[in-house]
Design a protein that fits this description.
By secondary structure, this protein is an alpha/beta fold. It contains 14 helices and 6 strands. This is D-alanyl-lipoteichoic acid biosynthesis protein DltD.
Length: 396
């Protein structure tokens, strides 16, 4: 009986090891064949001429491959490319760039990113696409003061989300980038990150097998549906995209943004969207808070990551346009603690030859803020104006 009891666990262990070896051999043998024989195809109907918003590269291998190729083309052909964080998730705002520029100026636009994507993630995504940089590249990067709060560093979950699939494959093929990724993983939640990346690899292999067996791409829905006006505007779009943007009537547009701000944000003491006040702020006794209570923002890892990003873009001769967003000082009580960091970031821009807009001094008036930090109609209109003027024709 004792021998049988001992033998049974050994048999299970050997069976598990055998199954794992067979699975590994199948992966190593079949994965390269699937990668070269399958042809990813778009299923979401998106077109940069009508505006594209990608929170990340996608949920499956087909979608990731398609979106990686989209970003590569956008960087190469002069499409307006905007990378940022949670501020890009506001689909309902007229002046969010991937709505405004295609609809009202006829400029193809692609935006990438959502909450928790920060400087390090943006750097690695762009590095994976570095072969796409051309003199026509139009790149805008939105900076958030919240990135510098507390530890101020890309979360491990965001690392696994954005630095995977074709992004990871591209980086892994570059020795210097590969060494840096290994270093980053070793100095963070190593096993957790490796587990997430292993899950992503298995999911990718599963997606390829599904496409190979069915002969069809995996269907994906868009994260953002372009408006009818944006779709209609695609008729006037020209490729390749001109090196400069058409200039808008900004006096009229800003007046309209202010009017919308007054309509939607004047019925509360914090200059936020009235709906946000009713559903969030009005339910708590005191909605104010401190953003930088847990540490000096200039000492955050994020500052080094941003410096690395700018240094890389300067090396690649990509003159990106950075926009530092503001905080709502009626809700964030320690906004002054971030002012030295803003000054240092502006100096960093000058050192690396980057153009930067500092929106941090903006005070909370109706239309600037949706909430404590995200831009509303007037806030985005001011950012759009700066983008438009940055890429405007420059006369001697």
């Amino acid at each position: 009986m004792w021998r049988r009891t001992l033998k049974s666990p050994l048999q299970h262990l050997l069976a598990a090891l055998t199954a794992a070896c067979i699975a590994l051999l199948a992966y190593l043998g079949l994965n390269p064949y699937l990668t070269h024989s399958l042809h990813p195809r778009a299923t979401d109907g998106l077109d940069a001429r009508a505006g594209i918003y990608l929170p990340n590269m996608g949920d499956n291998w087909n979608e990731q491959s398609v979106n990686f190729a989209r970003m590569s083309r956008a960087l190469a052909d002069g499409t307006l490319v905007i990378l940022g964080s949670s501020e890009l998730s506001s689909h309902d705002l007229r002046f969010v760039p991937y709505r405004f520029f295609p609809t009202e100026l006829g400029v193809p636009t692609l935006a990438y990113g959502h909450a928790k994507l920060q400087s390090y993630g943006i750097f690695r995504v762009l590095q994976s696409l570095s072969g796409s940089f051309t003199p026509r590249t139009k790149l805008v990067i939105m900076l958030s003061p919240a990135w510098f709060a507390a530890e101020g560093e890309l979360p491990s979950s965001a690392f696994a989300e954005h630095i995977s699939g074709p992004v990871l494959d591209s980086l892994w093929s570059r020795p210097a980038a590969r060494d840096n990724l290994i270093y980053w993983v070793r100095h963070h939640e190593t096993w957790g990150i490796l587990g997430l990346l292993a899950q992503a690899r298995l999911a990718t292999f599963r997606d390829k097998l599904q496409m190979w067996i069915t002969g069809k791409p995996i269907i994906s829905g868009p994260a953002y549906d372009p408006t009818p006006a944006a779709l209609a505007a695609t008729r006037h779009t020209v490729f390749p995209v001109p090196p400069t943007l058409p200039q808008a009537d900004w006096q009229r547009l800003l007046d309209e943004a202010r009017a919308t701000g007054r309509l939607l944000s004047s019925a509360n003491p914090y200059a936020v969207r009235n709906q946000y006040y009713r559903t969030h702020l009005s339910l708590v006794p005191d909605p104010t808070h401190q953003e930088f209570a847990r540490g000096d923002p200039i000492a955050a890892h994020e500052f080094t990551d941003l410096s690395q990003l700018m240094e890389y873009l300067a090396h690649k001769q990509v003159h990106a346009f950075f926009i530092m967003q503001p905080l709502n000082s009626k809700l964030v009580l320690d906004t002054e603690r971030f002012i030295p960091t803003v000054h240092s970031i502006m100096a960093m821009c000058r050192r690396y030859g980057m153009s930067c807009m500092n929106m941090y001094p903006l005070r909370p008036v109706p239309g600037i803020f949706n909430d404590d930090m995200h831009l509303a109609e007037l806030g985005w209109a001011l950012a759009d104006q700066a983008i438009d003027q940055h890429f405007a024709p420059h006369t001697p």
